Amino acid sequence: MRFTFTLDEEDLAYFKRLLRDARSYAKDREESEIVAAVRELVADVRKARRIPQFMKDALTTLRALTDIVDDKDFNLPRGPAGRIVAALAYFAHPEDLIPDDIPGVGFLDDAIMVRLVEQEFEPELWGYKKFCKFRDTSEQRSWTKVARQRTAPKLPLKRKEILQEVERRRKRGGGFRLW
């Protein structure tokens, strides 16, 4: 079964307003507190016996966004990292449009918001995925100490290259903008 939502300009303005409110919430919180709250939300939802696929996809995106912010090797610049944390604040905020404990639909508003956030940060998500793939596959047996030692000096150059491409993609832009 497939459901399709069409969000008009008024709907998008509403969701943008929710994100701006979350941004205000984020100003009074530490980045680590917001990231930890989102990670806890992801873990709690994954504990459920049955999770619809759209929620699994949303959780994967939220986890990737928290990883981008926390990954010391990737070291996303403060500007984009701050925007991601501000967007994540929506999911860390205890109150949202539809209470999460309503079975079946409680996370629907969150799933919509995840899709909007995912579109906004598509270049960063693409770059992070590419960076992780390089880090994890540049050496055979990448989990070994020797492989990690050989990979470590290559990471800053690869990171710079990828972040330049992320910036080019962002400038080419189009698409949805939250801010």
Characterize this entry briefly.
With 179 residues, the chain is mainly α. It is built from 8 helices and no strands. Helix 3 crosses helix 5.
What can you see in these coordinates?
The protein is mainly α. The protein has one domain (9-172). The chain has eight helices and no strands. It has helices at 9-27, 31-46, 53-70, 78-92, 108-120, 122-137, 145-151, 155-172. Helix 6 packs antiparallel against helix 8. The longest helix has 19 residues, at 9-27. The two termini are 33 Å apart. The model has no long low-confidence stretch (mean pLDDT 84).
Task: Label the overall shape.
Answer: globular
Proportion of beta-strand residues: under 5%
Q: How many β strands by DSSP? A: 0
The secondary-structure element order is: HHHHHHHH
* Helix content estimate: 55-70%
Main beta sheet strand tally, sense and closure:
none
Distance between the termini: 33 Å
Structural class by SSE content: mainly alpha
Question: Can you give the mean pLDDT?
Answer: 84
Poorly predicted parts: none
- Number of discrete domains: 1
Q: Calculate Rg over CA atoms.
A: 17 Å
Q: Counting H and I runs of at least 4 residues, what is the number of helices? A: 8
Can you give keywords for this protein?
179 residues; single chain; mainly alpha
How do the helices and strands line up, and which of them pair or pack?
Elements (H helix, E strand, L loop, with lengths): L8 H19 L3 H16 L6 H18 L7 H15 L15 H13 L1 H16 L7 H7 L3 H18 L7
Helix pairs in contact: 1-4, 2-3, 2-4, 3-4, 3-5, 6-8
